[in-house]
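Project standup — Tuesday

K.O.: blocked on the structure for the chain from last sprint. Re-posting the sequence here as requested.
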Amino acid sequence: MYNNKTKTIKTKTIKTKTIKTKTMKTKTMKTKTMKTKTMKTMKTMKTMKILAYMFIAGLFTACSSGDDDDTPTPIVPTSYSGEITEDVTWTSDNIYTLDGRVMVTNGATLTIEAGTVIRGAEGIGADASCLIIARGAKIMANGTASNPIVFTSVADNSTNGTSGFGSGLSSADQGLWGGVLILGNADISAESNPLQIEGIPVSETNGLYGGGSSSNNNDNSGVFKYVQIRHGGAEIGEGNEINGLTLGGVGSATDIHHVEIIANLDDGLECFGGSVDVSNVLVWGQGDDAFDVDQSYSGTIDNFLGILIDGDQGLEIDGWEGAMQADFTLSNGTIIGAAGEKNNCGKFKSNASGSVSNMLFTNMKNGATLTVDAGATGVSFSNISFDAGYNQTLVDDLGSTVWNDNNSGTGGANLSNFDGWTVSHYSNAY
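H.V.: unblocked you, prediction finished:
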């Protein structure tokens, strides 16, 4: 009996062990199977995620590529003709071409970055290239001393404002395109107001200047600073050329300074009425007059330099027309003469009215004259000087002595204001 119990117990123990062993194996197998399935599931999900990411990325790439293919890159226009009626900016990373008359109208603003080069196509007659800023529109030409804005001919391949002329051109190459005209609503003394500007066909309605009954002497045509204008003055008709820089009825709120005008076939700078002040302006090698004032210009031209080659007058000051009379101011100017048939100091015509102070005429040819018409009784002079060796006694047409030159050869413009940023300085023109 005892042995039987013992045997039973052993048998139970064996069975128990067998059951436990089976249970453990079963659990282990199940666990292993579950782990295997989990790993496979995770791996599958990871793969699916990667594929999904790749698919989405592919979609984005395809969309992007499709956009590039379907939408061409915008082309920045660099050649202009006709009217500019909306605000536009010309940037220094492009070179722009004026193909015929380009007119900023409709109150639009043309902004030009420092260092920008604008080249005028040659054109013929009335189709000569030029830039017109019409009444009510603006130009914001913001050049700097290190990066002046350059207006020149297509024949000039120079891209640097101060590095000199391009393609073998020189200060004697004139009339290769038109010029720059800024027109405003300020007062002018003329028989008709507004009036068509010189050098532009009468058929062009955007060529009017002067405000008429709505004149505004505080009119604002923008900013024009550190700008070079080269090789302009194309002939529109016989005896009708475009000035390098024409200011017609431009108001006093306009900011114009540091302007160089080289090799213009007609006048360098001409002011038709208006009240704008201009300072630090240089004219070199013009075909007619260096500085011309008309129609009761009432602003100030300060610190100016004219370098003559084969021009007419250093100064040509016309009188008022019509009923309106206003006085100009010319201060701190130098005219450097040259040998040649013309190249006179200046002429003040009948009805001219204003003041001239601190003027120096130097290197003038023998016999060069500075004359005052009998009717120019409204002009006053102070500190007018000629360089040593050239004596000038100015007598008006009525026989009255206007001044006796002291032959001091002093005064005049501060030439250092033209150093560094002008081609004239680079070329040792003064």
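K.O.: great, moving the ticket to review. The first strand starts at residue 79 and ends at 84. The two ends are 142 Å apart (CA to CA).
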